[in-house]
Amino acid sequence: MPIFRPRNDEQLYAISNIDPFADASVLSRGIIAEHQDALWVASPLKKQRFRLSDGYCMEDETRSVAAWPVRVNAGQVEVCL
Questions:
Q1: Measured between alpha carbons, how far is 47 from 77 in angstroms, rounded to an integer?
Q2: What are the pLDDT digits (tens) for 18-29?
Q3: Where are the domains of the chain?
Q4: Does the reported pTM lie above 0.85?
Q5: CB 2 within 8 A of CB 14
Q6: Which residues contact 68 (CB under 8 A, 6 or more apart)?
Q7: In CATH terms, is domain 3-69 a member of 2.102.10.10?
Q8: How many CB atoms lie within 10 A of CB 58?
């Protein structure tokens, strides 16, 4: 699972790396963008966008990906699975 830290943002995000449209581990290589005050990652293959906060897919909600809470504790990144 990739950990995302958008530029100029202290918040960390963790979502599945699997693009459900291509069935490939590529979301970690996607481009982060902002839309309607939310951060999204666009798949590098088919360009579908997934919201970093919850994995929701903008183009097809039935293809959303898993998302996990992330925090920094004593300098260590922790993901709640």
A1: 28
A2: 999 999 999 999
A3: 3-69
A4: yes
A5: yes
A6: 1, 14, 15, 79, 80, 81
A7: yes
A8: 15
